Amino acid sequence: HVQLVESGGGLVQAGGSLRLSCAASEDTFSDYAMAWFRQAPGKRRDLVGGISRSGLNTYYADSVKGRFTISRDNAMNTVYLQMNSLKPEDTAVYYCAAVRRVAVVGRETDYDYWGQGTQVTVSS
Question: What per-residue confidence (pLDDT) applies to 18?
């Protein structure tokens, strides 16, 4: 069983930056593609982006492309979400998720493990 713990959320002004981290409990971290999802109040949880288990391939939703960057350090069992040029519409609870596959998949139900979420609030 993989435990995922997110950190790094907080309150930031529009145009600012935050970096989220997601630490995994297992040394088999490199067996998992990792993704970041987010859920705003009253909305469904959406895929923000993800990274293959090797780290060589990434995917981003159109809404964050060019502003957000996902990376991973398999030696540290950690995946990161660097968020730049933040907008008020980026306000949400951000979750990391793990799927035991080579590459990221889009369906929320395919993911095996989830973190508890971290709140990101962007003020205008």
Answer: 98
